Amino acid sequence: MVAHLGCIWQELLKWNGWGYNDSKFIFNKKGQAEFTGKRYRLGGMVLPTFKEWIEKTFGASLEHKTTSRASLNVNDVPPSIVNEEFLQDLRATKISYSQDAEDRVFRAHGHCLHEIFVLREGMFKRIPDIVVWPVCHEDVVKIVELACKHNLCIIPFGGGTSVSSALECPEEEKRTIVSLDTSQMNRILWIDEKNLTACVEAGIVGQDLEKQLAESGFCTGHEPDSMEFSSLGGWVATRASGMKKNIYGNIEDLVIHIKMVTPRGIVEKNCQVPRMSTGPDIHHFIMGSEGTLGVVTEVTIKIRPVPEYQKYGSVVFPNFERGVACLREVAKQRCAPASIRLVDNAQFQFGHALKPQVASIFTSFLDGLKKFYITKFKGFDPNILCVATLLFEGDREKVLQHEKQVYDIATKFGGLAAGEDNGQRGYMLTFVIAYIRDLGLDYYVIGESFETSVPWDRVLDLCRNVKERIVRECKEKGVQFAPLSTCRVTQTYDAGACVYFYFAFNYRGISDPIHVYEQIERAAREEILANGGSLSHHHGVGKLRKRWMKESISDVGLGMLRSVKEYVDPNNIFGNKNLL
Amino acid sequence: FFSLFFLVSFCSIAVSHSFFICSQQKELTSKKRDEFEDILEERRLSSDLRYAMKCYTPVIYKGLSPCKPNAIKSAVLQSEQVQYVIKQLAKEMGESPDIIQEEAMEILDEMGHSMQLGAVRFFAFTLSKIFKQLFQRVCVNEEGMQRLQHAIQEHPVVLLPSHRSYVDFLMLSYLLYTYDLALPVIAAGIDFLGMKIVGELLRRAGAFFMRRSFGGNRLYWAVFSEYVKTMLRSGYAPIEFFLEGTRSRTAKTLTPKFGLLSIVMEPFLKREVFDTYLVPISISYERILEESLYAYELLGVPKPKESTSGLLKARRILSDNFGTIHIYVGQPVSLRTLASGRINRCPYNLVPRHLPQKPSEDIQEFVSDVAYKMELLQIENMVLSPWVLVAAILLQNLPAMDFELLIEKTLWLKGLTQTFGGFIEWPDNLCARKAVLSGLTLHANIARLVDGHVVLNDKGLEDGAVGEIVFKRALAILMCATYRNQLLNVFVRPSLVAVALQMTRSFRKEEVYSCFSFLRDVFSDEFIFFPGISLKDFEEGCFLLTKCDAIQTSQQEIYPTDKGSVIVSFLSAMFKPFVEGYQLIFRYLSKETKEAFTEKQLIPGVRNFVFQLLEKGNTQCYEALSSDMQKNALAALVQLGAVKKKKIVETLLWDPATKFLNSLAGCFCLPLPFGFQSFSQGFDKQREQSCLFLIEGLLCVLE
């Protein structure tokens, strides 16, 4: 076996949960919650009210603990079945590969709840038989050719952050499954300052891309919540959306050129232009194809100079309705800052519970004063109010001007400025919140997030109905404690918004929590569709949401996609069974 | 053709109904009903004034943001829905939107309620006095009230009471006040506004007024529907209206009207609310306040216009006794549950929700199914008094019946009714004699005991002219029928099986079913059948008949048992007035009518025709005089395609499909009133055949 490079990254990450090994929520010896590690601002801090919040919200108790198995049990892992001729051919290419159980399991899943649950307590029925690490476009061409020659199944793997079961191997797949890990294709090939574009290999993860561009004074500005781990190729394959899309655009706005290797050959455009009228845009067959057509190897992406100035902000609204009305007005006036998000009351309280211990009496006094002002003086009900967090970017002067405009609108809707600090904490939590599920899993709490996009006039109805549906379904399915069912409006558009839901419950007393969980999630999705929401705004379809594709895009629409698949990949080499 | 007919009917039982069918089946087997409490008892013991002034803090909808009636009106006026229609109309008519807005405001002012606690207290006081005078007891199922209390807090609630009397909505509001529940806003006919003071008083007690017909008026429709929906969405108050649209003059449930129901269902279907509770409420009167008025009305003596002076004149009834009222508040039905799996998930996704949109066929069918389901639930919980049984027996034994036999038969019918799932209020310790006697006392105006025989009360019978005798008799019979009618919807399925058995004179299940199915179609406006489940109804009928040992069934055959013939003939006799009445009406149509006629012309025509037959003693079917039956028969003929409805300059013309009437007339061997014309337009063979089959069947019974 050829020594491989994938290990370095893999070793930094948890094998059975989200993110870095060294970063996690724990309860310290005093029974207080704490976030470990030094990677995040919250690292090493004690969160005095978090425990109480968990107990109150979920009825969970520290005494009832479940534990994941400590490490992978290699004996449970399905054996790697790879044809020797293929191995010979593969060795000849000098592309590194591995048939090691841990490597294969690591690439057998994304981060859906059921996948993590399986890692902790069971084993996947089918996992990749072999992992390959191409280092460049040509390597990928060779691998795809070999796969065609030996009739193998390729599943491209980027950052592994999928939440749509897209990385799960189809159980019934009899051919050898090759996990094509793009992580070693992570170079910036060139930067074109005149046209403000950069050509980047698709395996690069978000944080590296931004770091490396920053060295030259640029950024892409594409910041999905998973940007620490997700890859450029993955963004293209799922039609990703970034937090700051108001300034930089979503992936479809950012991409100038894509190179993709398919069983039919390489697909790409002949030039790198801002727009062209040459029939339907072939990029749109690629973006959102979820690994069913080929492997994206190189992407030319727009870049911008790193902004001179960033400023966070937050606004408190008396209730969610007023908050949504304000966001709608901001969208109408097209003056949305880089990011504007509105969290509902439950999420506001959640954020509150993650407040670290204050350093001085003075801050604590100040906090008390703020609270007094908002609840007593302004008469906001702490159990109803909600908060919008803001992020402004650009040159200093324009940011301040912009800020004033947005705050003026907020005032019209009863909003009160609530400080930079709250805003910043809100965005930091975006990255940290993903770690909380692992903590919950230790205490019988399971949860997940899901998203949708919806026209403005239906935002409120959809949020209310979906949250209510979750509560009811939980009750019907015998969940003993009321679930956490909360949402936030995370993106604004001219014609609608993107809404993000968090949903978690305590599953003690339920024999098959994952099944119950899946039923509830499905009900929630049906509710979204009934309320005029979309099947997905940016998570994609994968295998998790396939059942609704037909009603989402019509029979003919589905047929159109199928015929593309049939032409590009007639032997279903890219057989991950996503989407269609 | 039997098998073909069978097949077709079978196919028409749509798969989509499976949910409803299942739930109905469940209800059939688990009929456990709540206990009643008398709410007047408390009133007779304590001060009405204190009761009226009590601290009233009703439970309200959890999502309610409290607002005044006027705030609702302005919200309605400013709503996108109404503004859209105003702009549309302004553009079309070339008028300024302000003028139309003004018009909308006037409509709102005419329509809107202005609920005030003062008026409510006034009603609480006066109604206490009046109800105590009129009624012995007002019985309510308290568990139902508790369920309602939960429902009101959880989701917007729509109250759907049965409608037999003006007392209905007064009583219901009174009841909710008594139980400290949010008072409903009530859709009332605009005629009430004609009553001085009273109209305004009702408005303040929560009534809002709708015009009787406003099909063509888009502005009115927009304002009205938005007004109702705004109240529903905000959870302002429970919304109350009558599915039957008007008071049933016959005490038989009327077929539902869909307009208001589809309005209140819309907020859920558009997902503007999470769910809506529909609460069927059954209000049963031991003696109906308006009983004689109704009888006159059915015989064509017009209904007096609602007026305050009329109301004052009617106060002499205060000295009369109207027995007990039973109010059964049914289980709140979640609209969401009804719709799940039934309605395509996103029928409203592709058009902005504020645009007026004609509901799709799916939705219309769903609304209709819900309406019928609610009425069936009302029927299920209607309380039947012993007198109802007495009336049913008396009508089969005119002119006089032995008292002892009557008691015996009443007891027998009680058992049968219970087998069929009827809800009889008959105290355990009450002996049959007392029950019958107390019924006779309460209804002394209808029947009395003379020399050990019970006779109908048609006083002055001997002196009058023939016409007057017939009229008096018809009055008494129609009044008596009002009580028998309360049994009919409980009995209709097994009874139509019994009638079909007699008509076909065959034991083959297929034949009996196809006759049953046809009768069910013919009587579809007369009785309440859930749409499209003919086979299910047939099976239920057979099941109930088997349960009381009246018939035995095998795979292929149905035959009456020896002991069952009594039941079978009782059941078919119970429905004989309808079979005969329809036959008379068909005969009139074939013989007497011109090619086209209006409903207004038809009804006096039929009435005179039947009246003459009665005078000559050629028929005994007094019930054919009822305008209700005449209208239903006509509606059935329209539905069967035997009569066509044409709209000509604002008057409806009913155009008898000539070919059908030819064959019908041919059946009766009567001369044709009009020349043979061969109409080839779409009158399908099969329907014609089944019509013929009906006529033959009807003749059989008559022989």
TrEMBL record, chain A:
Its main location: membrane. Coiled coil: none annotated. Keywords: Acetylation, FAD, Flavoprotein, Lipid biosynthesis, Lipid metabolism, Membrane, Peroxisome, Phosphoprotein, Transferase, Transit peptide. The active site is at residue 500. FAD binds at residues 156-162, 238-241, 290-296. Residues 124-306 form the FAD-binding PCMH-type domain. Its EC number is 2.5.1.26. Homodimer. Catalyzes the exchange of the acyl chain in acyl-dihydroxyacetonephosphate (acyl-DHAP) for a long chain fatty alcohol, yielding the first ether linked intermediate, i.e. alkyl-dihydroxyacetonephosphate (alkyl-DHAP), in the pathway of ether lipid biosynthesis. Catalyzes the exchange of an acyl for a long-chain alkyl group and the formation of the ether bond in the biosynthesis of ether phospholipids. This is Alkylglycerone-phosphate synthase. It comes from Buteo japonicus.
From TrEMBL, chain B:
The keyword Cell division does not apply. Keywords: Acetylation, Acyltransferase, Membrane, Peroxisome, Phosphoprotein, Signal, Transferase. GO terms for biological process: ether lipid biosynthetic process; fatty acid metabolic process; glycerophospholipid metabolic process; phospholipid biosynthetic process; triglyceride biosynthetic process. Pathway: Lipid metabolism; Membrane lipid metabolism; glycerophospholipid metabolism; Phospholipid metabolism. Its main location: membrane. Residues 157-286 form the Phospholipid/glycerol acyltransferase domain. The keyword Acyltransferase applies. It catalyses: dihydroxyacetone phosphate + an acyl-CoA = a 1-acylglycerone 3-phosphate + CoA; dihydroxyacetone phosphate + hexadecanoyl-CoA = 1-hexadecanoylglycerone 3-phosphate + CoA. Transmembrane segments: none annotated. This is Dihydroxyacetone phosphate acyltransferase. It comes from Buteo japonicus.
